[in-house]
Design a protein that fits this description.
single chain; about 230 residues; alpha/beta; two-stranded antiparallel sheet; 10 helices; 8 strands; globular
């Protein structure tokens, strides 16, 4: 008997086939909570460059990930999951941290929005900081947060050296900050800088990107001794 499968079933079967290889699933697990360059993924997973390139090509063809060019070092590309293709998949494992600190260059928009979103999604304490903090929070960041019912008008900027503690879980929410933080252990979210465009739409796009990422990270971060 011939059976005609729906296009959605065919697409899901193709996705499961691609993710049925351990190395490719490990790549997806690595990228679920943060972006990374191909060299970072290869180094962390112990994959030689030729094999890594093969797996990345198949994941790209399946629509699971995409490459984005760094806003900092423009010779560098970052791998980013297309989360719409991964509905139903969740991050592997959990992380213990006394606090989550979001870092961007100027601490005037992305890191402030991320910390404000985190406060709504998690009981784990949070803070934000910048590698080159501006004098104040960007007015469009304040307006965007207000539109979503988040108070940000009293937020102040700060330098990473004045904020970070040894056990913090650090999340760099911009390429420049990620590339400036050196050997510091961290997650990386390659969120486009809305201040470059300077429009309400750009800030709204950044907000929605951050909200999606916070929603993925918050359930797997816990304080020591917290119920899981």
């Amino acid at each position: 008997m011939n059976v005609e499968w729906s296009s959605s079933v065919v697409e899901r079967a193709r996705l499961h086939s691609v993710l049925g290889e351990p190395a490719r699933l490990a790549i997806v697990d690595r990228l679920l909570l943060g972006d990374a360059s191909p060299s970072e993924v290869g180094r962390e997973l112990g994959l030689p460059s030729n094999l890594l390139a093969h797996h990345l090509k198949l994941l790209e063809q399946a629509g699971v990930l995409e490459r984005i060019r760094s806003e900092g070092d423009q010779r560098r590309n970052y791998l980013r999951l297309r989360t719409d293709a991964l509905t139903g998949l969740g991050p592997a494992g959990s992380r213990i941290a006394p606090r989550v600190v979001f870092v961007c260059t100027y601490n005037s928009a992305r890191s402030q929005l991320a910390a404000a979103l985190w406060k709504k999604r998690s009981t784990v304490p949070t803070a934000s900081a910048g590698t080159k903090p501006a004098d104040g929070v960007h007015p469009l960041a304040v307006a965007t947060a207000k539109a979503h019912g988040i108070p940000l008008s009293r937020a102040r900027t700060a330098h990473v050296e004045d904020i970070l503690r040894p056990d913090d879980l650090v999340v760099a929410v911009c390429d420049n900050a990620h590339e400036q933080l050196g050997d510091l252990q961290r997650l990386h979210w390659s969120v486009r800088d809305p201040a470059r465009a300077g429009t309400g739409d750009a800030f709204e796009h950044a907000y929605l990107d951050l909200a999606d990422r916070v929603d993925r990270l918050a359930p797997v971060v816990h304080q020591s001794g917290e119920q899981r």
